[in-house]
């Protein structure tokens, strides 16, 4: 166990050195590549304006997303009515999707409990 801890410490030290050596260059490159998204000069007023634009743009997209949801639901209803014609591949994809949703639910429950598996805090 002590050797694993030493290994972990050395790996963390190597990663820290790598980040300190190459981090600023990566940061500058990232900003240069995305400079069209940067508001100049940065100000509180501009940040407030952008956050309001984002909020109301998302709010305006609700009808479009709602319509897409109802189309998907109609498609699922159609599939359910004609389930005799359903292929094995489609059923397998649906089963995998359901399994993935269940796995994400379980992972969310574990995270919500503070990464404990029993639900009790130790």
Automatic annotation (TrEMBL):
<dbReference type="InterPro" id="IPR006808">
    <property type="entry name" value="ATP_synth_F0_gsu_mt"/>
</dbReference>
<protein>
    <recommendedName>
        <fullName>Mitochondrial ATP synthase subunit G protein</fullName>
    </recommendedName>
</protein>
<dbReference type="GO" id="GO:0031966">
    <property type="term" value="C:mitochondrial membrane"/>
</dbReference>
<dbReference type="GO" id="GO:0015078">
    <property type="term" value="F:proton transmembrane transporter activity"/>
</dbReference>
<dbReference type="Pfam" id="PF04718">
    <property type="entry name" value="ATP-synt_G"/>
</dbReference>
<dbReference type="GO" id="GO:0015986">
    <property type="term" value="P:proton motive force-driven ATP synthesis"/>
</dbReference>
<keyword id="KW-0813">Transport</keyword>
<keyword id="KW-0496">Mitochondrion</keyword>
<comment type="similarity">
    <text>Belongs to the ATPase g subunit family.</text>
</comment>
<keyword id="KW-0066">ATP synthesis</keyword>
<keyword id="KW-0472">Membrane</keyword>
<keyword id="KW-0138">CF(0)</keyword>
<keyword id="KW-0406">Ion transport</keyword>
<dbReference type="GO" id="GO:0045259">
    <property type="term" value="C:proton-transporting ATP synthase complex"/>
</dbReference>
<keyword id="KW-0375">Hydrogen ion transport</keyword>
């Amino acid at each position: 166990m002590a050797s694993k801890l030493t290994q972990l410490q050395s790996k963390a030290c190597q990663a820290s050195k790598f980040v300190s050596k190459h981090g600023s260059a990566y940061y500058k490159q990232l900003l240069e590549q995305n400079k069209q998204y940067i508001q100049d000069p940065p100000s509180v007023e501009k940040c407030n304006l952008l956050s309001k634009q984002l909020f109301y743009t998302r709010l305006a997209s609700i009808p479009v997303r709602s319509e897409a949801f109802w189309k998907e639901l109609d498609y699922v209803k159609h599939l359910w009515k004609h389930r005799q014609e359903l292929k094995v591949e489609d059923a397998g994809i649906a089963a995998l999707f359901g399994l993935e949703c269940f796995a994400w639910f379980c992972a969310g429950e574990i995270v919500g409990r503070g990464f404990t598996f029993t639900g009790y805090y130790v």
